[in-house]
Amino acid sequence: MNFSLIYQLFKKEIILELRQKYALNGILLYVFSTLYIIFIGFQKITPEAWITLYWIVILFASVNAGAKSFIQEGKGRLLYYYGISSPQNIILAKLMYNCILIAVISFIAYIGFLIFFGDVIDKPWNFALIMLLGSTGLAGVFTMVSAIASKAKGSATLMTILSFPVIIPQLLLLIKLSRRAASMAISNINFDIGYKELVGLSCINLIVVIVSFMLFPYLWRD
Amino acid sequence: MTLNRFFKIYVPIAAIVFLLYAIIGGFLLPVPARFILHETIRNLYFHVPMWFTMILLFSISLVNSIMYLNKQEEKYDIRSSEYINAGLLFAVCGLITGMLWAKNTWGAWWVFTDPKLNGAAILCLEYFAYVILRGSISDERTRAKVSSVYNLFAAASIIPLIGIIPRLTDSLHPGNGGNPAFSSYDLDNHMRMVFYPAVIGWMALGLWIANIRIRIRNLENKILENN
Q: How close does chain B come to A173, measured CA to CA in Å?
């Protein structure tokens, strides 16, 4: 592990993104078109639907974001990475980049939901923490699954098939926690913010990161 | 080889003897009369051992995946994938027996709020995804490597969630959310006498099926090499 190299790789991803503006803009366009369709379909939604739809939108946006990290990477560039760095550095850099990308997307999607459907979250800082944990978990799973799927044929479909079983339990936890953060809007609910679930989610994120860190080198060698 | 002997002689004998006893005894021996459950309590001898067997087979496959990544030998990959195939059979049987039981006691085929049911569904999805992943890679070494990595990655990130969360929240199953577990007082000594042999029998059957499939795969490989 080499921190300056990780930082360099991470900076490279950011610079590439800022130069091409392809991933972020594409995903934002996706988020807003989905929001518009939801708005036309529902007009007004309940707080439960608000939270569930929010996480579904984030889920599909982050599938696209994650797929970019290995599946859409050119073969030559991967070979170049192999030459300059050890696999651990690469997976950590990609993970950090995806985590920040998904966090940005979820923040912008939150603003979009605010504009279209009004605010239901009454503990914003709590929700910010949930968003951060959620984006770390989603980034961890999608980065690793995209590395796995890039080795197979028909990777785009495979990406969703492989990642959804892993992501569903996390998403259930995120929805449960977000309902707690909107307890004023959702009637008859207890006001506990859900420490057990928060701890559980953090542990899962840690496990996902450590396991990707350990398993990625096996995928890398060809 | 002793392990070979174990799989070829003792496991089949155990499977046949214990399962004959468990099926005949399970349907004929006395069971305690319980409200709502009534005679469906006999499903305990089938539904619960299915999941125990599935857990055993999937755990063996995880160990073999780790071994494959360490040693890169093909036999570990064959074992790991065949234990998963056999485990999936038991998972499907567990789902079917569970759905029948749920229809007769809870009144519905499937209950979406029960964390154990969600966990079972997610676990099945994961291993079906594993089968699809294997199908989509044609190169043998890549297939073995990638599927071992996915097996370990998915298990490490799913099992804590579906193994811990159900114990934190309410479930319709015995032993959760105030419902008594069978072991506390529901499972009386008459049932124990059938239940434990049934567990051994189904586990032996699972190992037997997996072992036959592994031997078939090995023979197929041998034929391919000779041609």
A: 9
Residue type, B45: Y
Q: Where are the alpha helices (DSSP H) in chain B?
A: 2-5, 11-28, 44-71, 74-105, 115-135, 140-168, 189-226
Query: Within a domain: residue B199?
Result: yes
Q: Angle B173-B178-B184 (CA atoms, 0-180°, nearest 5)?
A: 75
Do the chains contact at B160 and A173, CB–CB below 8 Å?
Answer: no
Residue A164 near chain B (CB below 8 Å)? yes
Evaluate whether residue B6 is within a structural domain.
no
**Could you identify the residue written with the tokens 């495979």?**
A158
- Which tens digit of pLDDT belongs to each residue from B77-133? 999 999 999 999 999 999 999 999 888 888 888 887 777 888 888 889 999 999 999
Q: Quick one: how far is CA A85 from the chain centroid?
A: 25
Query: What ipTM was predicted for this assembly?
Result: 0.87
Could you give the maximum distance between any two Cα atoms of chain B, in Å?
63
Total domains in the fold of chain B: 1
Is A207 within 8 Å of B160 when comparing Cβ atoms?
Answer: yes
Q: Do A215 and B129 touch (CB under 8 A)?
A: no
d(CA A118, CA A77) in angstroms, rounded, equals: 44
